[in-house]
Amino acid sequence: GAAGTERTLQDGTQLLQASADVRHEYVARRVDPAPVSNESIDAIHRPNMGPTNKVLLFFAVGSKPFARKLVRKNVDHARTFRDLTFDLYLAHYDNNRSTWYKELGDWYPQNVRYSAQVSGLKFWLARDLLLVKQRYERPGLYGPQPYEPSVMSKLPTVDVDSYEFLWILDEDAAFYTSDLGRMVQLARDSGASIMTPAFQTIENPESALVDAKHSRSIVHCQAGDSDCEIQYPNPSCDYRLVNYVEVSFTLMRTQAFKNVIGRCYNCLPVRGSTWGLSRVWCNWDAEAEYKSPEKTCAIIDGAPITHANAKTHTKYGKSNANSANSRAAALTNKTLGKYKTRAHQVFSCEKGTEGRFR
């Protein structure tokens, strides 16, 4: 079909998507809301709803062939788990959705439930695009809408509360050989709110398209690299309760996403960076949800994935990236120092139930 046009799914449901003319840099139009008090968070705290068997896959994607091929392999694999519903949101950070239409044909409207063309980093895009409904309903808590009304009217509205988990992903995640049914079951077993599947990184991104699980270019952790070591798969555990979860492939319960990404403005103080977020969100959400910090974050070892390490995002070519990262880390440390994780810690190595979704 023609690029940039409205499509219709096979079941007659309109494919919600942003207009192709949304090509501005978000930072120029953002109005930062005032910080939310702890009293405001406490007042709107709600217990987690029951399981829904629904997962939203939120990808920040460019238009390079590698990204299109890998995302498609992942999504096709997710569709094989009949007990689970995986809905797909593609945030096209390079404003080039038309290439996906051209190259993937009918696959795009048949599989992509939501899409938008806006520049930015993954968690900034997730904040901007997934909480449209919440900002309309509770602007005092979630802040103003990030775009002008003419743009907002063209963006899809996602009911995030209908999903049990939100999986916020980079385009170089390779999980097409992973047991996603087991991952969801273990996420439930853990009781945690912020999680990641354990993952290993490979040197040659293209090998992720062939056999990510058994790639010969797997990079093993260097001694003393605590970020790598804590997230590397531990075959002795089904999951580990920890005090640190990276931002690369985060699986979040919806309430935790709203708490941290939606209302903790100081968790993401600088557009153009997510530095500092992974150091504070476990303790921040533990307080917001009245949970023990030792039970808020988890690494799922029983269903590991692969990090293709493609470095395809435009941030890798920006000269001011290091400056933004330094400012973000400094501001997060200054405003949220009491929540900061100083050293990585594994609280326990656990075995899950025998169940899995098929």
Plain-language structure description:
With 358 residues, the chain is an alpha/beta fold. The protein has one domain (16-350): Spore Coat Polysaccharide Biosynthesis Protein SpsA, Chain A (Alpha-Beta Complex), CATH 3.90.550. It contains 14 helices and 12 strands. Strands 1, 2, 3, 4, 5, 6, 7, 8, 9, 10, 11 and 12 form a 12-stranded mixed β-sheet that branches. α2 links the parallel β2 (54-61) and β3. The longest helix is centred in the C-terminal third of the chain and has 15 residues, at 321-335.
- How many independent structural domains? 1
Order of helices and strands: EHEHEHHEHHHHEEHEHEHEEHHEHE
Q: Tell me what portion of residues adopts beta-strand conformation.
A: 15-25%
Count of individual beta strands: 12
Total helix count?
14
How would the blueprint of this fold be written?
Elements: E1 16-17, H1 38-43, E2 54-61, H2 65-78, E3 85-92, H3 97-104, H4 107-111, E4 114-116, H5 122-130, H6 132-137, H7 139-142, H8 149-152, E5 165-170, E6 173-174, H9 180-190, E7 194-202, H10 208-211, E8 218-219, H11 226-231, E9 239-242, E10 249-253, H12 254-263, H13 277-288, E11 297-307, H14 321-335, E12 346-350
Parallel strand pairs: 1-4, 2-3, 2-5, 3-4, 7-11
Antiparallel strand pairs: 5-10, 6-11, 7-8, 7-10, 9-11, 9-12
